[in-house]
Amino acid sequence: VQLVETGGGLVQSGGSLRLSCIASGFTFSSSAMSWVRQAPGKERELVAKIFIGGNTNYADSVKGRFTISRDNAKQTLYLQMNSLKPEDTAVYFCSALGFRGQGTQVTVSA
Questions:
Q1: How many C-beta atoms lie closer than 10 Å to residue 106's C-beta?
Q2: Distance between CA atoms of residues 59 and 45, nearest Å
Q3: Of all helices (H) and strands (E), which one includes residue 46?
Q4: Whole-angstrom distance, CA of residue 36 vs CA of residue 24
Q5: What is the DSSP letter of 28?
């Protein structure tokens, strides 16, 4: 299993970013996929999850601002993040089948 996240960066409060995760080594279309984040001094948080049929779940903290999606043909998972807040600052990881990628840093300035 290999998961490679891209798209992080520094953005001002209220801005947007789109994260991508390219997956390989497993049957992407048959796997639920998640985005999790880890901020310094805080517990890991499940941000969003997308199931095989396309149903989604979101953490209350990001509902209405973040959108998770998948492109099975490209074996790619996305996270569109709008109206970003400083408290969204964290390393964001793509996760599947108990594995996760190396993460991508998202920093939101006030």
A1: 22
A2: 8
A3: strand 45-50
A4: 18
A5: G
